Amino acid sequence: MKVIEVTNLHKRYGTHVAVDDVSFSVAEGEIFGILGPNGAGKTTTVECLSGLREPDRGTIKIAGADDRDSLKRIMGVQLQSAELPEKLKVWEALDLYASFYGRTSGDLLERVGLTEKRDTYFGKLSGGQKQRLSIALALVGGPRIAVLDELTTGLDPQARRDTWELIEQVRNDGVTIVLVTHFMEEAERLCDRLALIDAGRVVATDTPSGLVAMVDDEQRLRFRPSGPFSEEILRALPEVTEVSRSGEQVVVTGTGNLPHAVTLALAAEGVIPTDLRIEQATLDDAFLALTGRKLA
Ligand SMILES: Nc1ncnc2c1ncn2[C@@H]1O[C@H](COP(=O)(O)OP(=O)(O)OP(=O)(O)O)[C@@H](O)[C@H]1O
């Protein structure tokens, strides 16, 4: 079932078109990503989605939300770099937000792993803890949909991974998630489907693997052979398009079930591919092919 349907969304700031004819839909229970470089129009899109900005044109349908009040109940929003007063304690922030919805914060602190920080000032939290709190604040109204904007920007790799796990837990609890990001790795790891957006336009919408396959299903294998062999045995395989050497390493490019075909052919010669690495095209490659630009 579709819970969000955006059709031909358009938003200008003065003469600058920030969002140009954007359409996508989000199914219940999905983590739907909006991935694109800085300035692509991602934040403007989700601000329109959450009723914080009025679009110039286009329609936005949120299942069950016919007015602003019902939208507020259905959708929880965490906006980019939302700051709280330094001297607000974690529990005070949660209670304050809960009061907006006439609710209590329940076990949210525990769910986001901040129980021990309940009496800590916002200003004393680490980047990752601030982000955990902002997820808790987006969830405090018990929403069916959570919109999370650039959640892991500025976090170290461990804090980023912890936040990803938390987002997955939230989804497992039945919340549909719209995730704005400019990190390819984050989109690949978390999103069921995503819209690639560039200069205000959606350039493609699909699963991460579908987007990559759209561009290129070529893979590259790198390995060190355990002994000498003739490269011709690999060139003869229908899966292989190219074989080259880089020092001691053999690099094989091809399609289909390339790892299986190559290891089998080598095994027949008594050769083991050691330090075997498989490199596949990434979302970055897909973005580059679709827009002529790199994501990062
Ligand atoms: N309030 C505003 N007034 C004027 N221009 C704006 C405003 N907000 C955004 N813009 C411009 O609109 C374009 C889209 O901005 P938006 O913040 O939606 O992009 P984004 O993809 O979220 O980028 P980022 O990842 O950098 O936040 C940018 O060129 C930005 O400079």
UniProtKB/TrEMBL annotation:
**Example GO BP:** response to antibiotic
Primary residence: membrane
At the top level, the lineage of the source is Bacteria
How does the protein's chain sit in the membrane according to the entry? Answer: Peripheral membrane protein
Keyword Nucleotide-binding recorded: yes
Which residues belong to any copy of the ABC transporter domain?
Answer: 4-224
Q: Which residues form the signal peptide?
A: none
Q: Which keywords has UniProt assigned to this entry?
A: Antibiotic resistance, ATP-binding, Cell membrane, Membrane, Nucleotide-binding, Translocase, Transport
Q: GO cellular component terms?
A: plasma membrane
Classification via InterPro entries:
AAA+_ATPase (IPR003593), ABC_transporter-like_ATP-bd (IPR003439), ABC_transporter-like_CS (IPR017871), ABC_transporter_ATP-binding (IPR050763), P-loop_NTPase (IPR027417)
Q: Where in the cell is it found?
A: Cell membrane
SUPFAM superfamilies cross-referenced by the UniProt entry: P-loop containing nucleoside triphosphate hydrolases (SSF52540)
Q: Name one GO molecular function term.
A: ATP hydrolysis activity
Name of protein: ABC-2 type transport system ATP-binding protein
Which species is the source of this protein?
Nonomuraea soli
